[in-house]
Structure formats: C-alpha cells, structure tokens
Amino acid sequence: MQFAKRGLLAGLALGALVAAVPAQAQDEVTITVWSIDGANQVGPSDTFSKEFDEMDNGINVEYRILQFDEIVNETLRAFATGNAPDIVSLDNPDFALFSSRGAFLDITDMAAESDVINPEVYFEGPLNSVSWDGRLYGVGKYTDTIGVFYNKDMFAEAGIENPPQTWAEFEEYARKLAKPDQGLYGATLSARGNEEGTFQFLPVIQMSGGGYENVNTEGAREWLSMVKGMIDDGVLSQDVLSLGQWDSTGTFNSGNAAMAISGPWEIDRMVEDADFDWGVTLLPTFGEGDERSSALGGFNLGIMSTTEHPEEAFKVLEYFVSQDDRLFPEFGYLPTRSDVELPLSGIEKKDAALAVFQEQLQYAQPRGPHPEWQKISKAIYDAEQAALTGQMTPDEALSQAQKTIDTILN
C-alpha cells in the first residue's frame, strides 16, 4: 500500500509520540468509543481502539459495540443524561442531528494545527457530512456505495451474457433465474424498515428525478410495483422486508440468490466464501443512458462536546485517521480521502469489483444532510414497507411519505 508521505510521516510521528511517553508521567485517562464495528464482523473502530489502548501512553480506550438500530438513540439518551461517550461513530446522514445541536465538539482549530488530519484531502460528500455552518465537527471514517453482485455461473447456465443494465432487465433476469420451488431466488436486496431500507431505495427515487424532498416520482412507483410483484411471485424472498444488507447478501453468497444489491463491504466475504464465479455491475437505471444514482454510505467519527478530555480524545481520533491506509486491505472499506491510494490486491475478482464500486461512487448522492434526517428517512422506509407489504398502493404510500416530509421541512 502506497500512502501519501505526509500521512505516513504523521502516523509514524504520532506512534513515536504516544510510545515515548511513560504511563507514570501522567495521570491515566480513559476515552470511551462507541461504534457498531464488531457487531457483525471485525471493523476499524474496534481494531484501532484495541491497538491504541495497548499503547503505553497514559490514555486508555474503552470500546462499546452498539447495534446499527440503537446507536443514534442510545447516544442521544447518553448525551441528555450526561453519560455520553467521548467518541462516537455514526452513519453519515445522522451526523447533522448532533453537530447542529452542539452535541459534537468543534474541532476546526484542532484540525488546523494537526499534522494528521487535513480537511483539504477529504472528498466533498464525506466532508460536507461532518461540517455545519462552516465548522468541522468530525472526520469521515469510510465511505461506500451499492451495486449489483451477480452469479456468473447461473447467468451462463441460463444463457444470459451480460449483467442487467436497466431495472427492466433486472426483473427479466431475476424471473428467468428464480426457482422458487427449489429455494433459489432471482435476486435479493434489503427493504428493511430502517436506514438500510432507505439506503437502497433512495437512489431509485434520485435516479427518477426526485430526492429526499420529493419522493413520489413515477420511477419510484414503478420500482415498488416491480419489487412487490417479484416478492408475490417468489422471485424475491419475503425476507427482504426484514433482513439487513449483511444477512440479505448472505443469501447470494450461499448460492441461494442469483443477484444481490449490496456494497463493497461484502467483497472480502465473497472472495473467501463464495464457491462460484461472481462479478459486480453498476446499479441499474430506468432506461439505457438514463441518469444514474447510488447511495453515499459510510460512517463518520466525532468527539462529543461533553468530553472531559478533548485533547486526549483528539489524539485517539488522530490515530484512527493515521490508519486510513488499512481500511480497504483489512476491512474492505473505501477511505474518505483522496490521498489514500488503493493498490491492486492481485485477486482478480476483488480488484474488478473494487473498480466497479469506485466508478459507482461517481454517481453516489448523499442522504441529507439534515438535522431531522431520522424522521425523513423513516417516512421513506415506512412508505417502502407499506407498498411492498400491500398495505398501500405505491402512490398512496409515497404520497403519505411526501406529506410527512413536507411537514418536517417546512
């Protein structure tokens, strides 16, 4: 891995600094870090927290794993009761909820003096998600997006030469490949009633001319009708309504689905576990040459404004950032910085998949940012759930979501 000279030297200098200070020379300080990393698989926050904690620098790190569905509300409760962690990792659209309310520490001046954190090298989307009113409240931890994994062996057996480029082809191929009586599904995705559902559905809205401010588009209604029809006919499993992306993609990885909408965090698992030939293609569009979109995912790191040890917490944050060159090789995550190079792994499938996701990132659009993103997102995934379970027609569900969102925005 080639890492920018400045980042490498800064990381070495930081490591030398913390290693050179004996614990006896200062009072022990404990920094608490909360993240979802480690809930499903080993991740950067749990790994780097453990590494920093093992350094003899007078700063201990206590790490707590929270579930994806719990971390925002748990952090809000902890902040309100004076029991917040020192550092928390949040999904990027949730960051504005905290920074806009003064819950995150303004690190603008600290970053300006840092030899490790340089805001100028961050990609625009991730940088915007940690900024509020022109001030910096955190750093991007990693970024990601979604595309379509497909089973090349199944495609070849069915005489399908290329992966789907439009949603019509996606449905056509899924129906052709599905064998419901054998427990084989044509595709899988996550339409779960949480942020993961919004993460996969919002790009459909965006590529059909909408956005989080305007969700009731013709394309969104067509897509919901398509997906419901595939669920009703057994082409998609009913489980797509309840499974998160990790578990949903596991259906594909085990050879029980021909396609899966998911992201680059799955690449290493595919390389290790899939016993079939597979590839990745861009998220389909509604028509050939039509507008593309995809989700801008990833998490951020912020220091809570209630911390009693801002300088020590910032040192922990700097250590995390100094390890950004390890994000993809070790965890399959894409860095949020332009100065971190991604080397070829030498594994053909992995390198080909990475190239597709890097291309897909060019079309990725953010969720928000908006201080009330959780309420906006809930309106979107509630509409998806209502339409796909048949409680409402797509138009009724999206109209209701639009009314809710209009109330929030106005």
UniProtKB/TrEMBL annotation:
Q: Which GO terms describe its biological process?
A: maltodextrin transmembrane transport; maltose transport
Give the matching SUPFAM superfamilies: Periplasmic binding protein-like II
Ordered alphabetically, the record's keywords are: Periplasm, Signal, Transport
GO cellular component: a single term = ATP-binding cassette (ABC) transporter complex, substrate-binding subunit-containing
Q: Is DNA-binding found in the keyword set?
A: no
Q: Which residues form the signal peptide?
A: 1-25
Which Gene Ontology terms cover its molecular function?
maltose binding
Looking at the keywords, is Transmembrane present? no
Family membership = Belongs to the bacterial solute-binding protein 1 family.
- Record's protein name: Extracellular solute-binding protein
Organism taxonomic ancestry: Bacteria, Pseudomonadati, Pseudomonadota, Alphaproteobacteria, Hyphomicrobiales
